[in-house]
Structures are given as structure tokens and as C-alpha cells.
Amino acid sequence: MSSLKVIKSRIKSVGNTKKISQTMKLVSSAKYSRSQKELIQARKFGVCPKLLFDYTELQPNKSPNSQLFVAITSDRGLCGAINSDKIILVASEVGKKSLTFIDAAPKFPLYDGINDDTIDCWLEFSITTMIYWIIKESSTSEYAARMTSMENATKNASDMIKNLSLEYNRTRQAVITGELIEIISGASALK
Asked: Least C-beta-crowded within 10 Å: which of 26, 28, 51, 102?
């Protein structure tokens, strides 16, 4: 049985941790809201290349010669397993190929002729906007994951405080019971 002082110290320590995790959750919540607003704007540009391929009804090449995978992960902690989930997702995409503007150019009827400058400009624009969109998606999901992690940490701290308080009360009750037994035994011995 732990001493009352040690248990009380642990309750205070876990209480401080709970306050920190609650504050971090609130900060993440505010950052998530701001990031979500920015994501809505970025998503408009990020889906533009996808709409082009949907419009031209192109299908991806099933046997690609080469691929480039860009995994955008968080460089900060306290956000759960979000980074490992992303790495698993990237690994599962091996063998698939994205469409490019060059694939769509022959089927794109809005221009009479598409020259190399147009293709280069569109490729640069679509890659830049898709990467920006992916970074915004990653950032927003990181804040959401951190918010969830801090909520879970706060809940776990509350559970620990509840269990420690129960242990503290039981220990305190055992100490009081022991003292009462000593007093009663001493009174009986005097008679």
C-alpha cells in the first residue's frame, strides 16, 4: 500500500498533465478550424487536374515504367499514429500510376492545338496545386489527429485521477481504521 503523500503527489501530477492535454486539445482545435478553412480553398485547385481526367475519360496505365511517391508526414509529435498510417498508405499505392496532362492532351477538345509550352505550363501548375492541396490535407489531418490524441489523453488522465483518488481514499480509510483499532485496544488494555 502506497503512502498517502505519494498518492496525493501522483494525483496532483496527473491533474497537471490533464490540464496540459486539455489546453493542447483547445489549441489543436483552433488550428484545425483555421486549417480546414484554408483546405476548402486549396481543394478547389487541387481537384482541377482530376476533373480534367474525368472530363476526358482517361484510364490510368496499369503497367507503369516508373513512379514517384511523395509521402508527406508530420514533423511534430503528439498526434497518434498518423505518420505510420501514411507510410502504410504510400506502400499500398505501389504499382498504381497517376494520369498526366500529356495523357489527356489528345482528348482535350477545347484547344485547336496544344503545344509543348501549354503542356509544360499545365504540368507545372497541376503538380504545384496538387502538392499544395496534399500538404493542406496533411496539415489538417495532423491537427485533427492531435486533437483526438489530446482528447484521449485527457480522458485517460481523468480515469487515472479517479483510480488514484479511490486508492487514496481506501488507504486513508485503512489508516484511520488501524488508528481506531489501536485506540480501542489501548482502552481495553487499561480496563
From this structure: 51
